[in-house]
Specification:
Blueprint (H helix, E strand, L loop, with lengths): L3 H6 L3 E3 L2 H6 L13 E4 L3 H13 L4 E4 L14 E4 L7 E5 L4 E4 L5 H9 L3 E2 L12 H7 L6 H4 L6 E7 L5 E4 L4 H8 L5 H14 L1 H10 L14 H5 L14 H4 L8 E8 L1 E2 L4 E9 L2 H11 L6 E6 H8 L2 H4 L11 E9 L2 H17 L8 E3 L2 H17 L6 E2 L13 H14 L4 E5 L7 E6 L4 H20 L18 H20 L22
Parallel strand pairs: 2-4, 3-4
Antiparallel strand pairs: 1-2, 5-6, 6-10, 7-11, 8-9, 8-10, 12-14, 12-15, 13-14, 13-17, 16-18, 17-18
Helix pairs in contact: 7-8, 8-19, 9-19, 13-16, 17-18
Length: about 525
Amino acid sequence: MNFGVLENTLNGEFFTDDTTRRLYATDASAYREVPLAVAIPKTEKDIEVLIQFARENKTSLIPRTAGTSLAGQVVGGGIVVDVSKHFKKIIEVNTQEGWAIVQPGIVRDDLNHHLKSLGFFFAPETSTANRAMIGGMIGNNSCGSNSVVYGSTREHLLEVTAFLSDGSKVLFGPMDTPSFLAKAASAKSLESEIYTHIKEVLSDANNRAEIEKEFPKYSIPRRNTGYAIDMLARMQPFNPKGERFNFCSLIAGSEGTLAFITEAKIKLTPLDPPHKKLVCIHCHSIDESLRANLVVLQHKPSAVELMDHYVFEATKRNRGQIENRFFIEGDPQAILVAELTRPTEAEAERDAEILILDLKAKGLGYSYPIVGGDSIKKVWNLRKAGLGLLSNVPGDEKPVPVIEDTAVDVHDLPAFISDINSLLKKHGLYSVHYAHAGSGEIHLRPILDLKTAKGVNLFRTMAEETGNLVKKYDGSLSGEHGDGRLRGEFIPKMIGPHNYALIKRLKQVWDPHFVFNPGKIVETPPMDTYLR
């Protein structure tokens, strides 16, 4: 392929050398594919030129920020377009109306450092928040430990400025029904075709009924299975009592497959009340911790996170984490950490004690240390560090991200995890358990050796059989990490063939030449190909 036009035209940088391409062949997932080239655009004009080149040369663009994605979202054989270097500005902050306009390459924690002096923050928090960027958080519809209060990125995305696959620039945001209908009936353009298409699809009562029947339960806040047409179906004009129509709910979680984002208008949240307490509930088993979770949720926590004994064992071996283990008493099989945020120190302390009395009355847990002040950060640092430590254990067997992102209704969580552990036992496996119990999502990582044929076979087997269990509970195969290459293959099973045909057609309307990040969400290659 002749890249001369790009090398001579782009204001930014363009690389075709072997070393750079190999550096961009992976993300944080189990996948690896060497791209054709790597572009680091400097201006919006660069992105427009790249889109035109990809269309004319029948190749693709893979939008990328920090590369922390866990399902192979930014691994592909086209041109990787890294916006982390030049598209990282905070364009405008409006504290009166509570929003900011930012570029996709701004790091979440850097943004919040700037906002802190203004009394605000961008609420969705990933465990990689000190390096994850807003563009990637939008692409994956990311959330984190505080999602029990603040939800996912989708709920905080107000508007998006982006390029469509024909190179046209668009603004997506909330619109009333007359504006929506006018856009769908406007002169022919790719933008109007997009509105016309979604109007036709969601005006069909049969389509809405199939979506309601097959998509994850609406009571599950973490839901990234396929394109979010279920969210659009609940908006005006399809639901007169719904919110105003906004394609941002679809863009969030679309993994860069529908449009190339250059700016995002995001909702800002006033800073939390400053008084927090953690109740660290020590449990004899995973099941006990999940039953305790249902009690904790009745006490209005701001976060509920789970760690199991594999995480604790890994931190014993790490000098940097030993001091963060100060709150662990004995050798619990699991610790459920409940964060309570209250207006005053006295209220936080009182409510922590009330929670402990409730747990004791129900026979859940055996020790309940309360942590406050600067020590809170140590507990959360231990939680965030655990997975990295587990991934660096000696040997070829590692905790593998294959079923780590399932989400179910929180009341179904104890039975679902019990079924998962029975499945693991059947195959002679065991798994790490950690993360977001309060939101119905436990990150499970079976210990596998992907350098062996047996390990690769189990990788697929666990994905297939877990998908069956998730469907049994009307859950979401992805709660926050996205479909990517890992789960795309199983979406027809998760949402049914009728709905899968709808989202395939949606991709074709938005991106008829498959310019943007093909092979993710729909028409993905088998999940056990292109493994590292």
